[in-house]
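Hey L., structure's done. Input below.
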Amino acid sequence: MRSLRSHCLSLLLASVALSSVGCLGFGGPLLPETDGGDDEASESDSGTGSETTEHPCGPTSGVVERVIDGDTMVLESGDRVRYILVNTPEITDGKNECWGSQASDYNSMQVLGRTVTIEYDQECRDQYGRLLGYVSVEDLEINRALLENGFACILHISPNGDSRLAEYQALENEAKTAEIGMWGACATVSCD
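Output:
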C-alpha cells in the first residue's frame, strides 16, 4: 500500500511540475509568454483585423471610420489618410466640382467600414498633417481604381509617387481616351 501511495504521490508531483511549465502534452505552453520583450510576434498583426502594425510613418492597416471625399479617409484610430498620386474633384469647403460626389461615393463603397492596408512612400505626411499612402482593400488598390474608373486624375508631388508615375499616367490616359467617369461626364475637369 505504501508503494502505491508513493507511486501516486510521485505521479501527482510530476503532473504538477509539468503543468506549472505548461507542458501537459497539449502541444506547448498553456499560457502565452509575457516576458515583455520586444520580439517579432508582439509587432505583427494577429489577423483579427482590429490590430495594426506600425511603420515609421504610421499604421500599416486599419478600419476606415469615415470618408472625407474621393481621395481622403479617416481610420478608427483618428489618422487621416490622403491617397498618393491621385486627385478627385472637390466636394469639401463649399466646393461641388463635377464628379466629386461620385468619386466620394465610390471611395465610400470601397473602403468605409473595411480594413485597409496602407503602403507608404518617401514622405509620410502632407502639409495638412495627413498620412500619405497607397490604400488597398484585399487585392484592390484604391489609388489605381480611382484612376482606372475615371474618378481621379494624377496629382504628383515628388518624391512620393516617382516610381509609379508612368504607370499611373497610362491609367489616366486610358480613362480619358475611353471617356470613362468624369472624362465623359464633365464639361470641364478640375485637373485639366
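The chain has a mean pLDDT of 81. The longest helix spans residues 2-20.

-- N.
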